Amino acid sequence: AIVLIIAGVLTAILAIFNAFQEEDWRRMLSLSSAENAGVAVAVLGTSLLFAANGMPGPAGLAWIVCRLHLAAHSLAKGTLFLTADGVYTANDSYLIRQTGLLRNTPVVFGVGALFATMSLAAMPPQSGFVSEWYVFQTLFQGMHVKIIASRLRIALAAAGLALVVAVALATFAKLLGIGLLGDGHTEPVRLSFGRCGSIFFL
């Protein structure tokens, strides 16, 4: 359990700091996937730690939250990978740069991309916010663990994941602000109805 918590938190921290520095849509989104997988592994380790301390209720909650977090992440990340392909269609490049794309594409494209970005930045009312909120609610159950060393490990994991959430917010603010807004195209960008509709639906 302790190995999983440490590996998950360190992976999440390193991945999101690297993602923040990326200038390529695909690499940034891939590193964000590694970050969210790290969060899920840390929560899974917390579930095992709860079980080892005779707390089946919080252990089951942590297991469910791990799956909820992965589901919310997968939905939003799939949406942003489709958005990245739309960026490539418009610019012939996956570089994150000011394009003004949201102002020059169909509204459904912009709404879907905005909601997916909000979800990965853990902003309400999106599914990413709900899963992150439950992650922290699960970690707060560590106060009821009787062994002080285990309680301390869970508290440190919560602090590490709080750092991850803060950097993720900055990362996806950068992606939206630079990658989809700003100066750029003055003419409408022609993207297929299927692509725009899929982004909106997801």
- Output the number of helix runs: 7
Computed CA radius of gyration, to the nearest angstrom = 18 Å
Q: SS-based structural class?
A: mainly alpha
Overall shape: it is elongated
Task: Give the N-terminus to C-terminus distance in angstroms.
Answer: 34 Å
Largest sheet: none
Residue windows where pLDDT falls under 50 for at least 5 positions: none
The ordered string of helix (H) and strand (E) elements is HHHHHHH
Q: Can you walk through the features of this model?
A:
The protein is an all-alpha fold and 202 residues long. It has 7 helices and no strands. The chain has helices at 2-21, 25-52, 56-91, 107-120, 127-140, 148-179, 193-201. The longest helix is centred in the middle third of the chain and has 36 residues, at 56-91. The protein is elongated and about 65 Å long. The protein starts with a helix and ends with a helix.
Topology:
Blueprint (H helix, E strand, L loop, with lengths): L1 H20 L3 H28 L3 H36 L15 H14 L6 H14 L7 H32 L13 H9 L1
Helix pairs in contact: 1-2, 1-6, 2-3, 2-6, 3-4, 3-5, 3-7, 4-6, 4-7, 5-6
Task: Give a quick summary of the entry.
The chain is 76% helix and 0% strand. The radius of gyration is 18 Å and the shape is elongated.
Task: Output the keywords.
single chain; 202 residues; mainly alpha; 7 helices
